[in-house]
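Consider this today:
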Amino acid sequence: MAVKLHIKKNDTVRVITGNAKGTLGKVLKVYPETNRVIVEGVNIRIRHTKPNATYPQGGRIEKEAPVNISNLMLVCPKCSANTRVGHKLITEENTGKLKSRRACKKCGELID
């Protein structure tokens, strides 16, 4: 069963612990089953490969590895600060239904 996470694809996040502490990056892929995400430029791993059709030269290939979601904080697009994620109930204009949206805990701005 997948858990609803506070970070989604294309969010900007800051690493708050580990070797890359303080690094900003964009979320490339989310794995909700394992609570891990791949962040651009964070947790780079090197794989040595033989020459093949994809890599005719072979050699060392650098690739991002997943990071635990607890090591990241969302960066608010409006106030540009690390923030916790809250939720607000918003009424949609066209349907009139309530919908839960993510919001910045510091400035209150909606994040989607």
Q: What stands out?
A: The mean pLDDT is 91. Strands lie at 12-15, 24-31, 36-39, 44-49, 59-64, 67-68, 72-75, 82-83, 85-91, 98-104.
